[in-house]
Amino acid sequence: MSKGMSHFILVVYSNALASLILLPTSFSFIVITLMQNCVIICVRYSSPTLASAFANLIPAFTLSLTVIFNFISAAMPFVFAADLKGYPSEIMLVSLYCLFGSIESALVT
Q1: What residues have CB less than 8 Å from 33, skipping those under 6 apart?
Q2: pLDDT tens digits for 31-57?
Q3: Global pTM?
């Protein structure tokens, strides 16, 4: 103990902490994306007319809901949060990278 903490232990602890923080976040983004993909697949199987009209209705429906519930002024500070929701696979990749980095570091030590 007089030498202090090993550098390998520090790497293991930091990767484990990053995995614990990022992994639940990435799974929440995957569930949202999975549900959206299931809806799109179900619409494709229903009818071609509905499938072609569905993509055009999404922005109008979203705008209608924001006007009805007055979310436009409340949503302005979170414009950049939409970019984060657009890239859930990168967040999942980073969390898996941290998880497997923790496992490899634990095996080395």
Answers
A1: 88
A2: 777 777 887 788 778 877 777 777 777
A3: 0.31
Residue pointed to by tokens 């990168």: 90
Quote the radius of gyration of the chain (alpha carbons, Å). Answer: 21
SS3 content of the chain, % helix, strand, coil (to 5): 85, 0, 15
User: b or e along 56-73 (b: 16 or more beta carbons within 10 Å of the residue's beta carbon)?
Assistant: eeeeeeeeeeeeeeeeee
C-alpha closest to that of 26 among 104, 99, 107, 102: 99
Give CA–CA dist 64/48, Å, rounded.
25
Q: Are 82 and 26 in contact (CB under 8 A)?
A: no
CA distance linking residue 27 with residue 32, whole number of Å = 9
For residues 25 and 95, is the Cβ–Cβ distance under 8 A? yes
